[in-house]
Amino acid sequence: MINYIISVVISVVLALIFRMPILPKDKFSFKTTVVFPTPILALGFYVILKHLFFDNIYISVISGILGFLFSFYADKIFGEP
Fold it and tell me: Do residues 34 and 24 lie in contact, with contact meaning Cβ atoms separated by under 8 Å?
């Protein structure tokens, strides 16, 4: 349980350090923010890595970083809507 929290905290802290917007400006905006999808992606990467490898704190740190990177560059990966 603590590894899930570590993963989310690391992704949110990195998003805040790199000045991602906390909430979208528009209600129906597709811009990535700190609230969504950054923590959800971090949890998803954590579950995938936990099942592929093993469960420890390093996997939660790596998944937090991957979740942040994926949400930070989501517009470049998928293109802007």
Answer: no
Structure-token pair, residue 40: 């959800």
80 burial type by CB count under 10 A (0-12 exposed, 13-18 middle, 19+ buried): exposed
Contact (Cβ atoms closer than 8 angstroms) between residue 61 and residue 8: no
Q: What is the pTM of this model?
A: 0.92
Taking a C-beta distance cutoff of 8 angstroms, is the pair 60, 7 a contact? Answer: yes
Which of 9-13, 17-21, 23-27, 54-58 comes out lowest in average pLDDT?
23-27
Query: What are the residue boundaries of the structural domains of the chain, listed by start?
Result: 2-20+32-78
pLDDT of residue 49: 96
Judge whether 80 and 41 are in contact, CB under 8 Å: no
